[in-house]
Protein: Receptor ligand binding region domain-containing protein
Organism: Blepharisma stoltei
Amino acid sequence: MRVARSDKYNIQVIFNLCVIFNWKNIMVIYDETSSDSYEYFVAMAKQFNVEIVNSPKYRLIDTYYTMDMYQEWKWWFEGNVNLKARLVVPLLIPPYGFYVTESLYDTGMRRGDIIVLSNSRIAYSLQWLNDPIQNKKIIEMFDGAVIATHEWIGEYGEMLKKSSIGIILIQQIFVV
């Protein structure tokens, strides 16, 4: 039997990475489906003395955001991109997190501008990328991302591991 680690555990891993690398500022993006994780994230940021640099109005995005909504949300993306935050934590469900990432790209964010800290849902969802333009943008943004996951499971997991484009896999980080 396999038991997946919770989002809370993955958030603890993210903040342990902040301590290890002495990162003091972070940007978070979430939707209504991840509001519990978001509240926990905010509490952990306070506990670990890490500042969330984007104001609350620039954190919450429509749960079902798609690229068709980009013009309506462009102000939101510009506000986040203009922060020049290096650490970005998307607490979003696939595929909508990919649309948000693509929109950050379209607003000017590039690989090297950010370090994406996320959980295994991103890695396990890379196979959803079948649009060649979106694929290019997402791969460029996630290349070098830090994904907090505990394992690649079975044949399917191995296939994803091979296709995960330079993602830095954090398998075991001590959680307090």
User: Anything to note?
Assistant: The chain has seven helices and six strands. Residues 86 and 113 are 6 Å apart (CA to CA). The mean pLDDT is 76. The first strand starts at residue 25 and ends at 30.
